[in-house]
Amino acid sequence: MLDLKHIPLGAAIGLILTALFLITAIFAPLIAPYGLGEIVGDVWAPMSSQFLLGTDNLGRDLLSRMIFGARTTIFIAVMATALSFSLGAILGFTAAVVGGWLDTGMSRFVDLLMAIPTLIFALVVLSVLPSTLLTLILVMGILDATRVYRLSRAVAVDINVMDFVEAAKLRGEGNGWIIFREILPNALSPLISELGLRFIYAVLFLSALSFLGLGVQPPDADWGGMVKENKDGIVFGIPAALIPAAAIAALAISVNLVADWVLNRTTDLKGGRGNG
Amino acid sequence: MAKTQADSSDLLLDIRNLRIEAKVYPPGEAPRTITLVQDVSLTLNKGKVLGLIGESGAGKSTIGLSSMAYGRGGVKITGGEIILNGRDIRKGGTQGIRALRGREVCYVAQSAAAAFNPAHRLMDQVVEASILHGVANRAEAEKRAVALFRKLSLPDPENIGQRFPHQVSGGQLQRVMTAMALCSEPDLIVFDEPTTALDVTTQIDVLAAIKEAIRDTGVAALYISHDLAVVAQVSDEIMVLRHGKLVEWGGTRQIIKEPRQEYTSALVSVHEIAHEEKKPDASPFLSVRNITAAYAGGKIKVLKNVSVDILPGQTLAVVGESGSGKSTLARAITGLLPPEQGSITFAGRTLANRLADRSRDDLRELQMIYQMADVAMNPRQTVGTIIGRPLEFYFGMGGKERDARVAELLDKIEMGRGFVDRYPAELSGGQKQRVCIARALAAKPKLIICDEVTSALDPLVANGILKLLLGLQAEEGVAYLFITHDLATVKSIADSIAVMYRGEVVRYGPKSQVLKPPFDAYTDLLLSSVPEMEIGWLEKAISGRRMASAGN
Amino acid sequence: MSSPILKLIAQRVALGLLLLLAVSVLIFAGTQILPGDVAQSILGQSATPQALANLREELGLNAPAYVRYFRWLGGVLTGDLGTALSSRQDIATAIGGRLWNTLFLAFWAAIVSIPLAIILGLLAVRYRNGWIDKTISGLALASTSLPEFFVGYLLVYFFAVKWQIFPGISTVYDGMPFLERMRAIALPATALTLVVLAHMMRMTRAAILNVMQSAYIETAELKGLSPFEIIRKHAFPNAIAPVINVVMLNLAFLIVGVVVIEVIFVYPGMGQYLVDHVAKRDVPVVQAVGLIFAAVYIGLNIIADIAAIVANPRLRHPK
User: Fold this and answer.
1) What is the ipTM of this complex?
2) Which chains touch A (3 or more CB pairs under 8 A)?
3) How far apart are the first and last CA of chain B?
4) What is the CB neighbour count within 10 angstroms for residue A23?
5) Does A106 touch chain C (CB under 8 A)?
6) Cα separation of B5 and B16, whole Å?
7) A119 and C256 in contact by Cβ < 8 A?
8) pLDDT of A187-208, one tens digit each?
9) A3: which chain B residues are within 8 Å (Cβ-Cβ)?
C-alpha cells in the first residue's frame, strides 16, 4: 500500500534499523557470542576485540546480553502492543458503531482509567501482583488499550457519520459489512501509524518499569533492567549503562521515523490509487 | 472585448498581464508549480464596479486578492504589473503593500463569521484599519462606523458594535464586514462572494445594502461571484474567467444580453431547462401523512404535521431555506429519523417507521443521492464496486452478469466503461455525482430522494446533472423527491412543489399552481428573492417588497 | 455575564472531584481485590498460616472490601494516610517533606521548560518550514523517543563524572541553603526539562499554527497590520487557551516523569518513595502516594479545562 520507491531518507534509515533490531531479536541465540548468564571476564571490562561492548557489573559479555535483551524487550513490547491494539480497536469500533449505553459506559470507564497516570497505575497494580512476563504484558496491554480505544473510537465515529456509511445503512447492510468494508479500510492509515507509536510507548514503558526494578526480573535480561544493573558504574565513569539506554532510544527513534512517514503519507481520506 | 481606454485621471486599477502561480504538494509526488492565472489584464475606473465571474478554479478570488498583492497559502504573483492609483504595488515593498491594505483597498470575505476575530468586539475590529492608517481617530472612526451600520440597515446601529461576532447573525455579520471595509474610506473594495453563504431571502437584503453603500460612497469594487445573476445586479462591467484565463469582458448588458463567447452564453442560459409539467393523473404510490418529527428527544420539533404525495414517474420538489426541515423530511421518509406521529404509506401498505424494521425490498425501492458526492462514496472502493454492490446485495448478481450491468449503468450516466476501475478521488465533481446516480439506479428503485444534489456543483455541471436526471426519469419511470433551496432548479425539474418554512409545508400543489399568484407571504418572499438575469431586478424586487410591507 | 461561566466551572470542578472519588475506588480496588494476597506478599511464601492470619487481622483484611474502602477514604479525608507496613511510620509525616521536595524540583523544571517551549514553538511557527522549524521538529521527534534514564545518565556521565560541574546524586536536607539546593537539583531539573520540553514545544507549535491559519488572521493581514501586531492583537488572545491547555497537560506529564528522574538522581521525593514501597509491597504507602499523584494529575487537567472555558469568548459573552 505504500510506494516504496519514494521513501524519504529518514524513513529508509528507520525501516532498515527496525528490521535489524527485529532480526537480532529473532535470531538472538545464533548471533550472541556468549551465553546470557555466562560470566566470561572481569567486572566492567572495557571494550575489546574479545568483548565488543565490554562486560557488565558481574563480568558477563555486554553484547551478548544486549542481543538477548533485544529479544525480551521486543517480545514483551510486541505482545503488549498486540493486546492493547486488538482490545482497544475492537472495543473502540464497536462503541462507535453500536453507540448508546454501551458506548457511554465504556467511554466513561476509559476516561476513569486515563485519569490516573499510566506509570502510577502500573506501579499500584505491580505492588500487589508478581512481576511475571504475563502480568507485565497484561498490565501494559490493558492500560495502553485505553489510548487505542480513544483513537479508534474517534476515527470510527468520524467515518460513521459520513454519507457513504449512511448510504450503506440505507441499503440495509449489516454491522459486519459496515465495520469491515466501509469503516476499517478508511481507518487503517491512522491506526497503522498509531501502532508504531504504541509500540514505542510499550518499549519505553517496559524499560522504565525494569529500570525501576519492577519489570523483567533477573536473571532474565531486558534493556531497561540492564541499565539498572550497570547504573552504579556511571559514577566511576563506566558507560556500560548508557549502551542499553542508547539501544532503547535507537529502536524508538527508528520506529518513530517509520510511523511518522506512514502518517504523513496516508493521512488524507481521499484514498484512491497509490495511496492506500 | 475591445475596451475604450478611459481617461487616465479616472483610472484606479490597471492590471497588466497578471500571472499567478502556486506550489502544490501532491501526496507522494515531488512538489510542482501550477499556474492559477495566466495573462489576465483588467482596468477599473474610480467608482465603478467590475464583476468577476467563473466556476471554481477560474482564478477569480486569486485575481481579486492580487489587487492587495496578497496570495493565499502558497500562491505567488509571478508576473505582470498591478498599478493602483498610478503606481505598481508589486514594487512598493512590504511597507508599501502594508500601507495600501486596509487603506486604499479593503476586503469583504465570503464567510464573515470566520473572518471576524472571535475574541474582540465588532466595533474594535471595524475601526481598526482606520485608526491604524491614521484616517481617523477612534471617536471619528466609531461615529463613521455607526453611520455605516445605519446605512447598511443593521438593527440597533448605535450598539451593535459592542457585540461579539458570535452574537450576530450571518447576514448581519456580512453587512458589518462591508461596514468594516468602507470605514477607512478606501478607493477599492474586493467583495469575495459576500452573499454566497447566505439564504436566498437574506442574500437579497445584503446585496441591496452593499449596492446602496457602493453607490453612496463612490467606492470602486471588484465583485467576485459564481452567480451571474447576482453579479449582474451590482456590476457596471463583467469579466468572465475560466481556468485562470479571460473568456470575455464587457458591459453588464452586453454580457447577459449579447454574450459573444459560447461559454458565456452557456452561463447565461444555464437555468433554462424546458420541462413540461406532467399531469397528476396517476394515484400516488408514496404518501406522507401528518408527519411530526423531532430531534433531541422530542425537544426540537423540526417537522410539524407534514403531508405530501409522490406520483409514479414524477418529481416532487421540496423547497425551503436552511432550517426549514426539508432534509429532515427525507430522513423521516428513509427511516433514519423515525417520526413521532403520522405515517408513510408505500405501494398501498404502511411503511415501518424505523429503518431496521423495513424489508430489504422496501429499502431497495427508496434510494438516495446526496449533496456532497465525494463523501457519499467510500474513497477506498472503485466505481465498479460502488455501483456493483447494490446489484449483489439486492439481486444477488455476480461475475459477468454484474459487470455487464455496471457497464450498462455507466453508459446510462454518459460516462462509459473505462471508469470501472477508477477511485472516487480520480473523478471530477460532476462525475462523482453521476456515479452516485448510477448506484441509486442500480437498485431499480421506484423513488430516488435527491438531497441538494446540484448545490455543491458549478452551474454548468449542475445543469448537466439535471438534464441527466430528467432523461433517466423518462427512460426508467423513476420518481424523484427533489430537495433544494434553489428555485431555479425547481422550475427546471419539478412536476409538483412543496414549499417548506420552519418545519411546515406552507404551499403545496402542481408546479403551475404553486408558481401562480396569488401567493402566500412566504412563497412570495422566496420567489421574489431569487436573482434573475435581468438588469434592475434588484431594485424592482426591493421596491416590490417595500410596497408589500407598506400595504400590510 | 459570568453566571453561565461560573456554572460551567463549577460543573467541571464537581466532575473532577467525582472523578477523583472514582479514582480512589479504582486505586483501592487495584490493590485489594486483584488476585494476590497482601498478607502473603508481605510475609512471603514461607509464612506460617498463623502469621498470615495475624497479619490479616491486623491489616483489617477480614472486613468486607467496601468497609475497608470507606475506612481508608475517611482516613484520607481527615489527613490520616495510615501507617507504612515496612517501617511502621506514619505515612502523612513521611510524605510531607518529600512532597515538598518533589514540588520544588517540578517547579524549577516547569519554570525553565514552559517559557522555553513557548518561545521555541513561536520560533517554529514564525519560520515555518524553514530550517529552524525543521531542526526543532526533528529534535522534538527524536527526544520523544528517548527514555528518561538515557537523558539522565548522559547528564550524569558528562556533567557529574567527566567534567564534575554538578553533583550526580542530588542530596537535599532540611535547612539546606537555597543556592546549594539549586546546585543539587540542577541535573534532575535539566533532565526533567528535556523530557517534557520537546513534547510541549510540538504541541505549542500546533496550537499556535492552528490559530494562525484562521480566516481572521488573513483579515488582519489584509488590514495592513504588521506581523508583530497580528500576533499580539489577533493571534495571542485566541492562542492563550490552547497554550495553557498544552502547558497543563505537560505539567501532568512532568509529574509522571519525576518518578524515574528521582530514582536516577536518588532524590528524596515522592517518586522514589513510591518506587521503594512498591518493591517492598507496602500497600498503604502505594495507595496514598498513588492517590496524591492522581489528584495532582486530575487537578492540572481541571485547570486546563477551566482555562479553556474562561478564554472562550462565546462563553464569556453569551448571546
Assistant:
1) 0.84
2) B, C
3) 48
4) 12
5) no
6) 13
7) yes
8) 887 788 788 888 999 999 999 9
9) 28
